[in-house]
Amino acid sequence: MKTEYEVIDNFLDKEYFEELKKIVMGEEVPWFWGQVINDKHTDSKDLTSFFQHTLFHQSGSIVPAYYQHFIGFWVKLRMKAVIRMKLNLYPKTDKIEIHERHIDFDYDHKGCLFSFNTCDGFTQLEDGTKIASVENRALLFNPGIYHNSSTTTNEKARLNLNINYF
User: In 3-state terms, what secondary structure has residue 155?
Assistant: First the structure.
């Protein structure tokens, strides 16, 4: 079965993109270590990990000051409600590590995976389609279906914004 998705290059206007990129790739945002990438990484020998910074979660318990910089996505995506908005940083590895397949939330909803840098990392959809990480590219899809992320080998890190919304 073919997975429905849309890839939009140059998603944000250049000025807004550069503003966000400077924030995300600078030294301002505090990154928090995620010892497991998703709930499918349960093997004690699994050494994969990543860094994240949650901008918003539907529980309302986490709303850091950086969220205000990303309000432009509300308009661009015509969001009615945000479930979660978080930044992901996958450090460089010697070889591409493909993370375990997972779903973000167990129901149909909209998702935007936005790339801050170009690298050899990617997101793989349920049908096997690989969407390359390209600076200022948005992948729009239903993250209620299986998908997985990867690391990069040709940049210091793979950085993206993951938005789950209605």
Answer: coil
**What's the distance, CA 39 to chain centroid?**
16
Please tell me the predicted confidence (pLDDT) of residue 35: 64
Higher-pLDDT residue of 157, 33: 157
What does the DSSP assignment read for 84-130? EEEEEEEE--SS--BPPPB-SSSS--EEEEEESS--S-EEEETTS-E
Enter the pTM of the model: 0.89
- How many structural domains does the chain have? 1
Show the tokens assigned to 153: 């080998």
Query: Phi then psi for 17, rounded to 5 degrees?
Result: -60, -45
Q: Compute φ and ψ for 33, nearest 5 degrees.
A: -75, 125
67 domain residue, yes or no = yes
CATH number, domain of 132, equals: 2.60.120.620
Residue 73 pLDDT greater than 50, yes or no: yes
